[in-house]
Amino acid sequence: MANTVTSKPEPYWFLHKQLEQEGIIVESIVPSQKTPNLYFQFVCPRLGAYVISLYYDGCKKAILETHLGRDDLLAMLERNEHVLNLDYVQFNIPRIYGFLDKLFA
What does pTM read for this prediction? Predict the structure, then answer.
């Protein structure tokens, strides 16, 4: 049976610490005692479109939500940009690009 795209893709969840260890988070203004309670949700609602949401444990609503396109990330890389500022954290652009590509391939 061929792979089909579901109408509601499942989100992927990662801890702040996991993304730091992977080198995706390069800077964070979140106090270290709060990082164990932070989770990132990654969703790909359609090919090449990503939604990254930041949640604090116990809160149902995201603290932060950003929409990114694969083309946006490629353009940043072409401009030799290496850091994506998401208010509370900064992502390494080459690493987040590869991470999302691998996650949603």
Answer: 0.86
